[in-house]
Specification:
With 205 residues, the chain is mainly β. It is built from one helix and eight strands, in the order αββββββββ. Strands 1-2-3-4-5-6-7-8 form an eight-stranded antiparallel barrel. Keywords: Signal.
């Protein structure tokens, strides 16, 4: 547990250093640019072995040549199980999980190509509002009557994302694909997301 906390603190310090040093260095050369991003994709609840869909909205504020500050709201809803939990034929599983994730992140461009391709890494704290319902068979009870466990979450975890971004024919629109992970309560990754994004320029360079 202490090791997890030490790694998290070290990561945040590194990200703050990467963010503010370039911001100071290039503040006289470039003006901040604002972008709005929408997206959607697939998600996995690794703790409960569920799969589902996600929808994402982001507001991106450019700090420097390689850094940006992002505010995102992601909604996730499970749609099914990744494995057979012994549900009888014709019976629907009661397992489900969902959440709204409110996430501020610092993003750093690891790779910038002349073609317009950008590979970036982002990290930050994330507030999850949601929960899950899990059905567990009671083998010791009469007729194996199942237990239903319901958890409600209002918790802060760690959000990490690796994103590839590229140009489109429209100079004001860019496409991106992000692979992100969320962890909380010393379990990482709890959720995994693969999200396709469309990014719109709404501010001056």
């Amino acid at each position: 547990m202490k090791l997890f906390g030490m790694k998290t603190n070290l990561l945040f310090r590194l990200l703050f250093f990467m963010a503010f040093v370039p911001a100071v260095s290039f503040a006289q050369d470039e003006k901040p640019k604002v972008q709005y991003t929408v997206g959607g994709g697939a998600s996995i609840d690794g703790n409960n072995l569920l799969w589902g869909l996600n929808m994402n909205n982001e507001l991106n504020y450019k700090l420097g040549r390689r850094t940006s500050l992002n505010a995102a709201v992601l909604f996730y809803q499970s749609l099914g199980n990744l494995e057979n939990r012994g549900v009888s034929p014709g019976q629907k599983s009661l397992d489900q999980s969902s959440g709204i994730f409110i996430t501020p992140t610092l993003k750093y461009d690891i790779l910038q190509r002349d073609s317009g391709f950008i590979l970036a890494f982002a990290a930050g704290p994330s507030l999850q509002l949601g929960g899950n319902t899990i059905e567990v068979v009671n083998f010791s009870g009469p007729e194996n009557t199942p237990f239903i466990f319901t958890n409600k979450f209002q918790r802060i975890g760690l959000f990490l994302e690796l994103e590839g971004e590229w140009k489109t024919r429209n100079p004001n629109i860019r496409n991106a694909v992000g692979i992100s992970a969320y962890g909380a309560e010393y379990y990482f990754p709890w959720y995994l997301n693969a999200t396709y994004k469309v990014r719109f320029n709404i501010g001056k360079k």
